[in-house]
Amino acid sequence: MSASQAAVSRRAGKLGTENAFVVLAEVSELARQGQDIVSFCIGQPDFPAPEHVQQAGIDAIRGGRHGYTPSAGIPELREAAARYMGRMRDLTIAPDEVVVGAGAKPFIAYAIMSTTDHGAGDEVIYPVPGFPIYESQIVASGAKPVPLYLRESRAFAFDPNELEDLITDRTRLLILNSPQNPTGGILGRSDLEAIADIMRRHPQVWIYADEIYSRLVFEGGFESIASLPDMRARTIISDGCSKTWAMTGWRIGFVANEALAPIFTRWVTNTDSCASHISQWAAVAAIDGPQDEAESMRAKFLERRDLIVARLNEIPGFRCQASGGAFYAWPNVTEACQIIGCSDSEAFRKRLLHEAGVAVLADIHFGERVPGDGQHIRFSYATSNESIIEGVERIARFMRQARGG
């Protein structure tokens, strides 16, 4: 068989993507052509990593820390991450429960592959709208994706009764994400207690708690299902450095679960060997060092949230709730689509990009639309106040012109 006749696997053919990067490439190409685009499409802090974190990376390089580390991570980082995750959740976590990876994202796949068997009909329940890699990895792992809808009427939490209706004897994993991407919604204490009550009736189901935005909660404190009675042993706590300390490109995430830690370590050995040695030392500095810059970033994101939500709600056809955490706005644009004659949010997104010079993502980039909830688009407000003001004004002007007003 010639190279031109060779086929890719069905698994590879079905592998999804993260559309933020797809749209970013489109935006970059338009910018290269000379178009002025205000972009809200990429979900990463626009701040540099704190100075002491940068210095720790430099010191690691100059100190000759260039080689492999143990697959589970350097002991210093596993200890720091154990203290940090435990302190955030009022738990005592041992360092040998912690595994470090090249970002938190690989642990999504590791968790699915460690709790389901390919082609066995095992099911994974995941939030919709949600991080697109959840569904992609469920399918690639040969499990069945089961969407759990986040409702606008519940501030983008889900109805616990709907969760219980979805659980079967084939359910192996429940993915929770709080604060959430893309809605900015929060699972509060009462939500988590209701979920825990249900999960106690279904002991065969693991929980993957994606808590990468744990330090970006705007009202009240952060809550984790791992902190509730009977939930700790079955919960895979996932956190990392990317969002809290603006370290997306450093690629450091970590998880904690006593039973699965050895298995996750083998997955790391089979894939990345280990996370970057240099980045691991920078992560130790991030966790154990001064937190003033991390807190300053959080305060800035809150300021931006209030700015963008207020201005979006001034645009005819937009209805936007204030996000409880992360750095995303998820306005309902059903009426806006009707006003300008767009069939749906994706058509609206394209018109905003090409006619208004504003880049956002559509709800279909985060899974199927929630039945009855209408059309939505996502803004990442990890950008300057000036860009928020300019971008929203462009949309307002576009809406006025499209209406002929």
Q: How do the helices and strands follow one another from N- to C-terminus?
A: HHEHHEHEHEHEHEEEHHHEHHEEEH
DSSP, total strands: 12
Fraction in beta strands: 5-15%
Distance between the termini: 62 Å
Class from helix and strand fractions: alpha/beta
Number of domains: 2
What does the average pLDDT come to?
95
| Computed Rg | 21 Å
Morphology call? globular
Q: Can you count the helices?
A: 14
Describe this structure in words.
This protein has 405 residues and is α/β, with parallel strands linked by helices. The chain has two domains: 10-48 and 293-402, Aspartate Aminotransferase, domain 1 (Alpha-Beta Complex), CATH 3.90.1150.10; 52-288, Type I PLP-dependent aspartate aminotransferase-like (Major domain) (Aspartate Aminotransferase, domain 2, 3-Layer(aba) Sandwich), CATH 3.40.640. 40% of the residues lie in helices and 12% in strands. The protein contains 14 helices and twelve strands. The chain has helices spanning 10-14, 19-32, 51-62, 75-89, 106-115, 132-140, 160-166, 189-199, 261-271, 277-288, 292-312, 334-340, 345-356, 385-402; strands at 38-39, 98-101, 123-128, 144-149, 171-177, 206-210, 235-240, 253-256, 328-329, 358-359, 361-362, 377-380. Helix 6 (132-140) links the parallel strand 3 (123-128) and strand 4 (144-149). The longest helix is centred in the C-terminal third of the chain and has 21 residues, at 292-312. The termini are far apart.
What labels describe this entry?
globular; 7-stranded mixed β-sheet; 14 helices; Aspartate Aminotransferase, domain 1; alpha/beta; 405 residues; 2 domains; Aspartate Aminotransferase, domain 2; 3-stranded antiparallel β-sheet
